[in-house]
Amino acid sequence: MVEYLVVGAGPAGLQMGRFLHRAGRDYVIVEAGSEPAGFFREFPRHRVLSTDDNSLFDGVPFARYSKRAFPDADDLVRYLEDFARPLNVRYNTRVSDLGQARHIILATGKKPYLPGIPGIEHAETYASASTDPTEYAGKRVLIIGRGHSAFETADNIAGTARLTHTVGRTVQRIAKDGNEFVATIDGTGELRYDKVIVCAGFRRDTSLDVPHAHIITGDSIKAIRHAARALHRTLEAEHHGVPWPHRKLRNRPDSLAATVADRARQIPEGLADVVVPQGQHALIYDEMPSSERNGFVVTRTQVRHYRKNELIAVERRLHRKPLERFFSQQLAVPCIA
Protein backbone atom coordinates (compact mmCIF):
# COMPACT_ATOMS: atom_id res chain seq x y z
CA MET A 1 0.00 0.00 0.00
CA VAL A 2 1.33 3.41 -1.00
CA GLU A 3 -0.30 6.78 -0.40
CA TYR A 4 0.12 8.10 -3.96
CA LEU A 5 0.42 5.92 -7.05
CA VAL A 6 1.37 7.89 -10.17
CA VAL A 7 0.94 5.99 -13.45
CA GLY A 8 3.25 7.16 -16.22
CA ALA A 9 6.73 8.70 -16.31
CA GLY A 10 6.12 11.33 -18.95
CA PRO A 11 6.07 15.09 -18.21
CA ALA A 12 2.79 14.87 -16.23
CA GLY A 13 3.83 11.96 -14.03
CA LEU A 14 7.32 13.32 -13.42
CA GLN A 15 5.98 16.77 -12.55
CA MET A 16 3.55 15.30 -10.02
CA GLY A 17 6.32 13.09 -8.68
CA ARG A 18 8.54 16.11 -8.10
CA PHE A 19 5.78 17.87 -6.12
CA LEU A 20 5.13 14.77 -4.01
CA HIS A 21 8.84 14.22 -3.48
CA ARG A 22 9.39 17.79 -2.32
CA ALA A 23 6.40 17.57 0.04
CA GLY A 24 7.75 14.38 1.61
CA ARG A 25 4.75 12.24 0.64
CA ASP A 26 4.71 8.45 0.29
CA TYR A 27 4.57 7.92 -3.47
CA VAL A 28 5.77 5.82 -6.37
CA ILE A 29 5.72 6.45 -10.13
CA VAL A 30 5.22 3.33 -12.24
CA GLU A 31 6.19 3.23 -15.90
CA ALA A 32 5.55 0.37 -18.33
CA GLY A 33 8.63 1.24 -20.38
CA SER A 34 12.27 0.94 -19.45
CA GLU A 35 12.89 4.70 -19.53
CA PRO A 36 11.01 7.94 -18.89
CA ALA A 37 9.53 10.13 -21.64
CA GLY A 38 8.42 7.22 -23.84
CA PHE A 39 6.05 9.41 -25.89
CA PHE A 40 8.77 11.87 -26.84
CA ARG A 41 11.14 9.11 -27.88
CA GLU A 42 8.72 8.41 -30.74
CA PHE A 43 6.88 11.70 -31.29
CA PRO A 44 7.00 14.09 -32.97
CA ARG A 45 8.11 11.85 -35.83
CA HIS A 46 10.25 14.52 -37.44
CA ARG A 47 11.93 15.30 -34.09
CA VAL A 48 11.18 19.03 -33.96
CA LEU A 49 9.15 20.44 -31.05
CA SER A 50 6.56 23.13 -31.72
CA THR A 51 7.64 25.39 -28.84
CA ASP A 52 10.65 26.16 -26.66
CA ASP A 53 8.48 26.37 -23.50
CA ASN A 54 9.21 22.88 -22.21
CA SER A 55 10.40 23.45 -18.63
CA LEU A 56 8.78 21.75 -15.65
CA PHE A 57 8.42 23.35 -12.23
CA ASP A 58 11.21 22.80 -9.68
CA GLY A 59 13.73 21.72 -12.30
CA VAL A 60 16.53 23.42 -14.16
CA PRO A 61 15.38 25.57 -17.11
CA PHE A 62 14.95 23.69 -20.37
CA ALA A 63 17.03 26.46 -21.98
CA ARG A 64 20.12 24.73 -20.59
CA TYR A 65 19.41 21.85 -22.95
CA SER A 66 18.47 23.88 -26.02
CA LYS A 67 18.14 27.55 -26.88
CA ARG A 68 16.48 26.96 -30.24
CA ALA A 69 13.01 28.34 -30.90
CA PHE A 70 11.97 24.87 -32.11
CA PRO A 71 14.17 22.41 -30.21
CA ASP A 72 14.98 18.84 -31.12
CA ALA A 73 12.74 16.31 -29.37
CA ASP A 74 15.83 14.43 -28.19
CA ASP A 75 16.78 17.49 -26.12
CA LEU A 76 13.47 17.13 -24.27
CA VAL A 77 14.12 13.42 -23.70
CA ARG A 78 17.49 14.23 -22.09
CA TYR A 79 15.84 16.93 -19.97
CA LEU A 80 13.15 14.54 -18.70
CA GLU A 81 15.71 11.80 -18.02
CA ASP A 82 17.62 14.16 -15.74
CA PHE A 83 14.40 15.44 -14.15
CA ALA A 84 13.41 11.84 -13.28
CA ARG A 85 16.68 10.79 -11.60
CA PRO A 86 15.94 11.87 -7.99
CA LEU A 87 12.37 10.53 -8.09
CA ASN A 88 10.99 7.16 -7.00
CA VAL A 89 10.24 5.61 -10.39
CA ARG A 90 9.73 1.90 -11.07
CA TYR A 91 10.33 1.10 -14.73
CA ASN A 92 9.15 -1.98 -16.64
CA THR A 93 6.15 -2.02 -14.32
CA ARG A 94 2.62 -2.42 -15.62
CA VAL A 95 -0.31 -1.58 -13.38
CA SER A 96 -2.52 -4.54 -12.54
CA ASP A 97 -4.18 -3.42 -9.31
CA LEU A 98 -5.17 0.21 -8.78
CA GLY A 99 -6.37 -0.67 -5.30
CA GLN A 100 -2.83 -0.60 -3.93
CA ALA A 101 -2.86 3.14 -3.30
CA ARG A 102 -4.97 5.59 -1.35
CA HIS A 103 -4.78 8.13 -4.18
CA ILE A 104 -4.32 7.24 -7.86
CA ILE A 105 -2.98 9.78 -10.34
CA LEU A 106 -3.18 8.85 -14.02
CA ALA A 107 -0.56 10.54 -16.20
CA THR A 108 -0.63 8.00 -19.00
CA GLY A 109 -0.14 10.36 -21.92
CA LYS A 110 -1.73 10.15 -25.36
CA LYS A 111 -2.04 7.88 -28.37
CA PRO A 112 -2.51 8.76 -32.06
CA TYR A 113 -6.18 9.28 -32.85
CA LEU A 114 -8.01 7.61 -35.75
CA PRO A 115 -11.25 9.34 -36.78
CA GLY A 116 -14.27 7.21 -37.60
CA ILE A 117 -14.14 7.67 -41.37
CA PRO A 118 -15.35 4.72 -43.48
CA GLY A 119 -12.31 3.13 -45.12
CA ILE A 120 -9.80 4.73 -42.74
CA GLU A 121 -8.18 1.31 -42.32
CA HIS A 122 -6.73 1.69 -45.83
CA ALA A 123 -4.66 4.72 -44.81
CA GLU A 124 -1.26 4.96 -43.19
CA THR A 125 -1.01 6.76 -39.87
CA TYR A 126 1.23 9.44 -38.47
CA ALA A 127 2.91 6.75 -36.37
CA SER A 128 3.52 4.33 -39.26
CA ALA A 129 4.15 6.52 -42.33
CA SER A 130 7.71 6.84 -43.57
CA THR A 131 9.61 10.01 -42.67
CA ASP A 132 11.87 9.63 -45.74
CA PRO A 133 10.79 12.35 -48.24
CA THR A 134 12.12 10.36 -51.19
CA GLU A 135 9.42 7.74 -50.69
CA TYR A 136 6.83 10.35 -51.72
CA ALA A 137 8.64 11.52 -54.85
CA GLY A 138 6.17 12.23 -57.67
CA LYS A 139 3.20 11.00 -55.66
CA ARG A 140 -0.16 12.53 -54.82
CA VAL A 141 -0.56 12.57 -51.05
CA LEU A 142 -3.65 13.26 -48.94
CA ILE A 143 -2.99 14.20 -45.30
CA ILE A 144 -6.00 14.05 -42.99
CA GLY A 145 -5.60 16.49 -40.12
CA ARG A 146 -5.06 20.19 -39.46
CA GLY A 147 -2.78 20.17 -36.40
CA HIS A 148 0.96 20.06 -35.72
CA SER A 149 1.41 16.44 -36.81
CA ALA A 150 -0.34 17.09 -40.14
CA PHE A 151 1.63 20.21 -40.99
CA GLU A 152 5.01 18.79 -39.99
CA THR A 153 4.28 15.80 -42.25
CA ALA A 154 3.22 18.06 -45.13
CA ASP A 155 6.32 20.21 -44.69
CA ASN A 156 8.55 17.13 -44.75
CA ILE A 157 7.26 15.79 -48.08
CA ALA A 158 6.37 19.05 -49.87
CA GLY A 159 9.69 19.17 -51.71
CA THR A 160 9.35 15.72 -53.30
CA ALA A 161 5.62 14.93 -53.59
CA ARG A 162 3.80 15.72 -56.82
CA LEU A 163 1.01 17.33 -54.79
CA THR A 164 0.00 17.45 -51.14
CA HIS A 165 -3.52 18.10 -49.88
CA THR A 166 -4.12 18.71 -46.17
CA VAL A 167 -7.76 18.49 -45.14
CA GLY A 168 -9.65 18.33 -41.86
CA ARG A 169 -13.09 16.95 -41.11
CA THR A 170 -14.37 17.18 -44.68
CA VAL A 171 -13.23 13.68 -45.69
CA GLN A 172 -16.36 11.50 -45.89
CA ARG A 173 -14.89 8.15 -46.95
CA ILE A 174 -11.81 6.46 -48.39
CA ALA A 175 -11.88 3.58 -50.90
CA LYS A 176 -9.07 1.49 -52.36
CA ASP A 177 -9.01 1.17 -56.16
CA GLY A 178 -6.04 -0.88 -57.26
CA ASN A 179 -2.91 1.02 -56.26
CA GLU A 180 -4.84 4.25 -55.80
CA PHE A 181 -7.03 5.70 -53.07
CA VAL A 182 -10.31 7.44 -53.82
CA ALA A 183 -11.24 10.01 -51.19
CA THR A 184 -14.68 11.58 -51.09
CA ILE A 185 -14.31 15.12 -49.76
CA ASP A 186 -17.28 17.27 -48.80
CA GLY A 187 -17.68 20.18 -51.21
CA THR A 188 -15.06 18.81 -53.62
CA GLY A 189 -16.15 15.34 -54.66
CA GLU A 190 -13.93 12.33 -55.37
CA LEU A 191 -10.17 12.78 -55.70
CA ARG A 192 -7.48 10.18 -56.35
CA TYR A 193 -4.24 9.80 -54.40
CA ASP A 194 -1.24 7.52 -54.26
CA LYS A 195 -0.97 7.75 -50.47
CA VAL A 196 -3.27 8.73 -47.61
CA ILE A 197 -1.79 9.56 -44.19
CA VAL A 198 -3.93 10.14 -41.10
CA CYS A 199 -2.42 12.83 -38.85
CA ALA A 200 -5.46 13.57 -36.69
CA GLY A 201 -3.61 14.35 -33.49
CA PHE A 202 -3.69 12.46 -30.22
CA ARG A 203 -6.21 11.42 -27.59
CA ARG A 204 -5.55 10.58 -23.97
CA ASP A 205 -5.17 6.89 -23.14
CA THR A 206 -8.27 6.06 -21.07
CA SER A 207 -7.68 2.31 -20.63
CA LEU A 208 -6.89 2.66 -16.91
CA ASP A 209 -9.57 5.20 -16.02
CA VAL A 210 -11.45 4.44 -12.82
CA PRO A 211 -14.01 6.69 -11.09
CA HIS A 212 -11.81 7.58 -8.10
CA ALA A 213 -8.62 8.39 -10.04
CA HIS A 214 -7.18 11.86 -10.59
CA ILE A 215 -6.15 12.67 -14.16
CA ILE A 216 -3.44 15.01 -15.42
CA THR A 217 -3.59 15.97 -19.06
CA GLY A 218 -2.82 18.89 -21.36
CA ASP A 219 -2.01 19.80 -24.95
CA SER A 220 1.43 21.19 -24.09
CA ILE A 221 4.06 20.86 -21.40
CA LYS A 222 3.06 24.31 -20.16
CA ALA A 223 -0.54 23.13 -19.69
CA ILE A 224 0.63 19.88 -18.10
CA ARG A 225 2.90 21.49 -15.51
CA HIS A 226 0.18 23.93 -14.41
CA ALA A 227 -2.47 21.19 -14.27
CA ALA A 228 -0.15 19.04 -12.15
CA ARG A 229 0.53 21.90 -9.75
CA ALA A 230 -3.19 22.63 -9.37
CA LEU A 231 -3.91 18.96 -8.64
CA HIS A 232 -1.08 18.76 -6.11
CA ARG A 233 -2.32 21.87 -4.32
CA THR A 234 -5.81 20.39 -4.23
CA LEU A 235 -4.55 17.12 -2.73
CA GLU A 236 -2.39 18.95 -0.20
CA ALA A 237 -5.35 21.04 0.96
CA GLU A 238 -7.84 18.15 1.08
CA HIS A 239 -5.66 15.45 2.63
CA HIS A 240 -2.83 17.19 4.45
CA GLY A 241 -4.32 20.48 5.64
CA VAL A 242 -1.95 22.62 3.61
CA PRO A 243 -3.71 25.89 2.63
CA TRP A 244 -3.85 26.81 -1.04
CA PRO A 245 -1.20 29.51 -1.65
CA HIS A 246 -2.68 33.00 -1.84
CA ARG A 247 -1.78 36.66 -1.66
CA LYS A 248 -3.51 39.85 -0.61
CA LEU A 249 -4.46 42.93 -2.60
CA ARG A 250 -6.54 45.97 -1.84
CA ASN A 251 -10.26 45.37 -2.15
CA ARG A 252 -10.83 48.31 -4.50
CA PRO A 253 -12.10 48.31 -8.10
CA ASP A 254 -8.90 49.86 -9.49
CA SER A 255 -6.64 47.38 -7.71
CA LEU A 256 -8.77 44.37 -8.65
CA ALA A 257 -9.08 45.51 -12.27
CA ALA A 258 -5.32 46.03 -12.69
CA THR A 259 -4.52 42.61 -11.21
CA VAL A 260 -7.17 40.72 -13.14
CA ALA A 261 -6.35 42.40 -16.48
CA ASP A 262 -2.71 41.38 -16.07
CA ARG A 263 -3.35 37.85 -14.79
CA ALA A 264 -6.06 36.89 -17.31
CA ARG A 265 -3.47 36.67 -20.10
CA GLN A 266 -1.37 34.25 -18.06
CA ILE A 267 -3.95 31.79 -16.75
CA PRO A 268 -3.67 28.35 -18.42
CA GLU A 269 -6.67 26.73 -20.07
CA GLY A 270 -8.88 24.84 -17.62
CA LEU A 271 -7.73 26.80 -14.56
CA ALA A 272 -8.89 30.02 -12.91
CA ASP A 273 -7.72 32.64 -10.45
CA VAL A 274 -10.20 33.07 -7.60
CA VAL A 275 -10.55 36.46 -5.90
CA VAL A 276 -12.35 36.48 -2.55
CA PRO A 277 -13.14 39.93 -1.03
CA GLN A 278 -12.62 40.13 2.73
CA GLY A 279 -13.17 43.61 4.15
CA GLN A 280 -10.31 45.97 3.29
CA HIS A 281 -8.46 43.28 1.38
CA ALA A 282 -9.15 40.58 -1.18
CA LEU A 283 -7.42 37.22 -1.28
CA ILE A 284 -6.32 35.92 -4.68
CA TYR A 285 -5.78 32.20 -5.17
CA ASP A 286 -3.83 31.51 -8.37
CA GLU A 287 -4.74 28.78 -10.85
CA MET A 288 -7.42 26.80 -9.08
CA PRO A 289 -9.70 24.35 -10.92
CA SER A 290 -12.12 26.43 -12.99
CA SER A 291 -15.06 24.59 -11.38
CA GLU A 292 -14.62 26.78 -8.28
CA ARG A 293 -17.82 28.64 -7.34
CA ASN A 294 -16.68 31.25 -4.86
CA GLY A 295 -16.08 35.01 -5.21
CA PHE A 296 -14.72 36.26 -8.53
CA VAL A 297 -13.58 33.37 -10.77
CA VAL A 298 -11.17 34.66 -13.43
CA THR A 299 -10.38 32.62 -16.56
CA ARG A 300 -8.67 33.57 -19.80
CA THR A 301 -11.97 34.68 -21.29
CA GLN A 302 -14.18 36.04 -18.52
CA VAL A 303 -14.79 36.93 -14.88
CA ARG A 304 -17.70 35.21 -13.15
CA HIS A 305 -19.03 36.53 -9.85
CA TYR A 306 -20.53 33.96 -7.47
CA ARG A 307 -22.34 34.66 -4.24
CA LYS A 308 -23.19 31.61 -2.10
CA ASN A 309 -22.41 29.39 -5.14
CA GLU A 310 -24.93 31.30 -7.29
CA LEU A 311 -23.74 33.00 -10.47
CA ILE A 312 -24.81 36.64 -10.34
CA ALA A 313 -22.71 38.43 -12.99
CA VAL A 314 -20.26 37.85 -15.87
CA GLU A 315 -17.76 40.23 -17.48
CA ARG A 316 -16.03 39.26 -20.74
CA ARG A 317 -14.15 42.51 -21.45
CA LEU A 318 -10.88 41.84 -19.67
CA HIS A 319 -9.41 45.33 -19.92
CA ARG A 320 -8.83 47.67 -17.02
CA LYS A 321 -11.61 50.21 -17.58
CA PRO A 322 -14.44 47.70 -18.21
CA LEU A 323 -13.17 45.59 -15.32
CA GLU A 324 -13.06 48.58 -13.01
CA ARG A 325 -16.68 49.41 -13.82
CA PHE A 326 -17.61 45.74 -13.31
CA PHE A 327 -15.96 45.54 -9.89
CA SER A 328 -17.49 48.89 -8.89
CA GLN A 329 -20.94 47.52 -9.61
CA GLN A 330 -20.31 44.19 -7.93
CA LEU A 331 -18.67 45.66 -4.84
CA ALA A 332 -21.20 48.50 -4.73
CA VAL A 333 -18.54 51.17 -4.34
CA PRO A 334 -17.91 54.23 -6.54
CA CYS A 335 -15.68 53.77 -9.59
CA ILE A 336 -12.24 55.33 -9.04
CA ALA A 337 -11.31 57.48 -12.03
How would you characterize this protein structure?
- The strands form 5 sheets. The chain has a 6-stranded antiparallel β-sheet with strand order 15-17-16-18-19-20.
- It has 337 residues and is α/β, with parallel strands linked by helices.
- The longest helix is centred in the last third of the chain and has 20 residues.
- The chain starts with a strand and ends in a 6-residue tail after the last helix.
List keywords for this structure.
337 residues; 28% strand; 20 strands; 6-stranded antiparallel β-sheet; single chain; 5-stranded parallel β-sheet; globular; alpha/beta
Count of alpha and pi helical runs: 7
Strand content: 25-35%
Strand order of the largest sheet: 15-17-16-18-19-20
Work out the radius of gyration. 24 Å
Give the total of beta strands.
Answer: 20
Order of helices and strands: EHEHHEEEEEHEEEEEEEHEHEEEEEH
Instruction: Please outline the major beta sheet.
Output: 6 strands, antiparallel
Write the layout of secondary structure elements.
Blueprint: E1 2-7, H1 11-23, E2 27-30, H2 38-42, H3 73-84, E3 89-90, E4 101-106, E5 110-112, E6 124-125, E7 140-144, H4 148-157, E8 163-167, E9 171-177, E10 180-185, E11 189-193, E12 195-198, E13 202-204, E14 214-215, H5 221-240, E15 247-250, H6 253-264, E16 271-278, E17 281-289, E18 295-298, E19 303-307, E20 310-315, H7 320-331
Parallel strand pairs: 1-2, 1-4, 2-3, 4-14, 6-12, 7-8, 7-12
Antiparallel strand pairs: 5-13, 9-10, 10-11, 15-17, 16-17, 16-18, 18-19, 19-20
Helix pairs in contact: 1-5, 6-7
